[in-house]
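Homework help board

Subject: predicted structure for assignment chain

Our instructor gave us this sequence and asked us to write out the predicted structure in token form, then describe one feature. I got the tokens but I'm not sure how to describe them. Can anyone check?
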Amino acid sequence: MVAVPHSSPTSSRRAWSQLFQAPGRAFALTPLPILQGKVPGALRGTLFRNGPGRLVRGQKTMGHWFDGDGSILGVYFTETGVQAQYRYVETPYLQQEATADTLLLPNYGTLAPGPIWQRWGKPAKNSANTSVLPLGDRLLALWEAGKPYALDLQTLETLGEADLGFAHRSDTFSAHHKIHPATGEIYNFGVTFGPQATFQLYRCEPQGKIRHQAHFSVPGLKGLPLVHDFVLAGDYLVFCIPPVRLQMLPTLLGLKTVSEALQWRPELGTIVVIIDRHTLKPVSISRQDPWFQWHFTNGFVNDQGEIVLEMVRFPDFASNQQFVEIPQGQIKTYTKGTLWRYHLEPKTAKVITANEICDRSCEFPITLESQTGQPWRKTFMGIHRQTADIGHELINAIAAFDHHTTTFTMADMGPDHYPSEPIPVQNPQNPDQIWLLVVVFNAPAKRSELRIYDGDRLDEEPLCTLEFPKIIPPSFHGKWQPEALDHKN
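My token output:
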């Protein structure tokens, strides 16, 4: 792994480190007071977010940001006001460690305690901490290395592991599903560890039941390839498999965590796999120059029949080391991801063109879910403000890139403000208007806020700012549910 130390001599802790000094505190359904502005009258529905709320248990700290216990934030916009609640996903793994008041189980970046012979055979902890999927009266908490956990959509009470009709006991269900806007079908994947890595593919009914399950393998691809996200583009699903490979023996023996055993192997190149979304069968596979990505924005098929996809591209795997350092409260490893667009030939999976379209350091690119698989105008993202100390900071602003005008607009909240991934919401009364819902840690004020921005005027003050009753640790991903839930007090 290439980890380039940042040149800044300063080593003092940044304001964002406060977010990791203690676990997030759950709170019951609570009205949110308005600090500034007014909630748009047509904004009705629910914002759900998921992220690692607890990274410490007893006297032990988890070894990676990805290992934190999942916690769900629900924010409800109704005729009578805005309310919110925050609860942990009560998996059996969390309950077991809570009873013992210590860490007991291995995870992506955390070893099981005890001598090596006691680590063998211990199941990996399902943190249920990455994203959410509303399904009828259930909310699924998703974590890519296991099955989803179902929660009551209104109370966020954990109901248990969700069986969507998986064909195999070892099947996993990624956090980054895609919903086809016309059919409501849900596409997703999972990766099965083994001498020959296998990708499970799922096409699910709108209520979650698996309608069609298939699989594919790439010749020579062993162990556990690191694929966090994929693209739905027209009639295709696209997977980009970075050259990150797992040292299998030390992982199986419990000598290294998965995170520690993943190696950056640029000489292997990035593998592109294109799948027919109707049959779930591979169309083409190619090997390209190396890059790494965590997240894609979206994809579509243009008038020339080319697949166009957009991602935040990194030159290497150094961002993984950053995620080790973040729970420790200091970032020492510098890396920069920027927004890129790729054009692919479907029949060969070869890259036709690859262009950086915005050179700002960014992550969590997103657009409206109703535009999944289709052309879109604006990409919203979290970015770094242009400061001399960028290498030591979390994402500390949000921005929009307009593909029609090629203009970049930023919502600069000022120093020491840390937003989570922005969630775009379409105004049901005016489809051309987009609101952005952003959970922000306001360090100077020592509070967490929900900010509502006009997606066309990010450089102006937010339309509304509301205050949460507790500080909320940064979450990974969220989802907007247009239907408002009627909570009875």
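Reply (TA_rk): Your tokens look well-formed. For the description, you could write something like this. The CA atoms of residues 185 and 205 lie 5 Å apart. That's the kind of observation they're looking for.
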